[in-house]
């Protein structure tokens, strides 16, 4: 006799909706509509498969009402009322994956005597300008030292933070699943701050210049010693004091006000787009960050900034649209290194080689599906050292 599980149809409906709608799930779960209608119930195996597919614990389906889950880190996103909005399965999966990796790495680091990352919490009582200056000095990122384009800046800052002992992850999807993209309007990044293994995640479903600002914002969280989830935007004043501070630090880190005031007179006869583009080339960041810097420096008023911001945003959107189709793809191992972070990857590879980590655990930690793919990635990482 087949044992069936008495699931709550409303929770099945809720879980299916969170995962993108029942239409997308019917191919793998042909009985889903009947479960939702209460006309039939799944077997244990069917429920287990469905639970995994929609990233929902099996026990939830037996509850009497739809559960309210609280995020495991501080939520500083503006425009996201915890009482009315529903966090996506993609956000939950990303958070859970990063927490699992951080926990594993922290245990690994402590087992081999890795010292705490000395910058964590160092700026707890500092002002934004002092913190940004310390970040630039520590990461060797003064204005005149910056070389290359935005991609080069991203690569360099990741490397510098990892040299300090931090962990990084840049991804636009859940693991390698292109069918589960991340939404930058829902969140742009987060930081999981711990003394030994501070981890910064950046939603790569935004421009590289956007990623740079988000990374700088999360660096500020690490320096302050308090991690959080955010959706920071340059044209909005956050209702949260910590987010305001981190936004200010990030902007000052990328475009120092004193330096900007010294350089601006050379460009003031140019049109606004020309000024922004010229200064963006100097600071190796986005024009919106430069525009924010002009406001912070007192060169632009708040009113002028709010008028110019949507104009510049529209111009950038038009440029981005015209550039679509130019992406020729990329090296899968190179992309995977951005998604996992090199420090974390090297630790997993070392532990696997030593026999202290099982191959199946290595696959689970990295999200890589096959041993062949893992070996290819390991060869790539070892070749980069």
From TrEMBL:
It holds the Pfam family Peptidase_M78. Residues 179-293 form the IrrE N-terminal-like domain. InterPro entries: IrrE_HExxH (IPR010359), Rad_response_metalloprotease (IPR052345). This is ImmA/IrrE family metallo-endopeptidase.
């Amino acid at each position: 006799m087949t044992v069936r599980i008495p699931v709550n149809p409303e929770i099945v409906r809720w879980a299916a909706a969170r995962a993108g709608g029942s239409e997308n799930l019917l191919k793998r779960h042909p009985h889903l509509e009947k479960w939702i209608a209460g006309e039939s119930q799944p077997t244990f195996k069917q429920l287990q498969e469905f639970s995994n597919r929609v990233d929902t614990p099996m026990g939830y389906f037996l509850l009497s009402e739809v559960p309210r889950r609280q995020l495991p880190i501080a939520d500083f996103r503006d425009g996201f009322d915890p009482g009315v909005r529903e966090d996506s399965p993609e956000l939950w999966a990303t958070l859970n994956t990063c927490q699992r990796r951080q926990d594993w790495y922290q245990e690994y680091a402590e087992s081999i005597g890795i010292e705490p990352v000395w910058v964590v919490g160092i700026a707890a009582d500092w002002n934004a300008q002092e913190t940004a200056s310390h970040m630039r000095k520590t990461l060797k990122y003064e204005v005149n030292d910056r070389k290359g384009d935005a991609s080069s800046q991203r690569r360099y800052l990741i490397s510098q933070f990892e040299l300090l002992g931090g962990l990084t992850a840049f991804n636009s999807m859940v693991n390698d699943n292109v069918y589960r993209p991340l939404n930058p309007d829902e969140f742009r990044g987060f930081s999981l701050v711990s003394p030994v293994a501070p981890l910064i995640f950046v939603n790569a479903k935004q421009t590289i210049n956007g990623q740079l600002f988000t990374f700088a914002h999360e660096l500020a969280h690490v320096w302050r010693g308090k991690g959080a989830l955010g959706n920071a935007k340059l044209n909005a004043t956050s209702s949260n004091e910590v987010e305001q501070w981190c936004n200010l630090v990030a902007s000052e880190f990328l475009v120092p006000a004193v330096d900007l005031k010294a350089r601006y007179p050379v460009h003031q006869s140019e049109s606004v787009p020309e000024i922004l583009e010229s200064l963006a080339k100097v600071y190796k960041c986005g024009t919106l960050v430069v525009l924010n810097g002009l406001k912070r420096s007192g060169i632009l008023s708040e009113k002028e900034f709010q008028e110019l911001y949507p104009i510049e945003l529209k111009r950038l959107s038009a440029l981005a649209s015209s550039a679509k189709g130019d992406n020729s793809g990329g090296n899968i191992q190179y992309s995977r290194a951005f998604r996992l972070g090199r420090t974390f990857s090297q630790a997993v590879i070392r532990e696997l080689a030593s026999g202290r980590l099982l191959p199946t655990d290595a696959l689970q930690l990295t999200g890589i599906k096959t041993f062949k793919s893992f070996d290819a990635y390991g060869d790539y990482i070892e070749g980069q050292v």
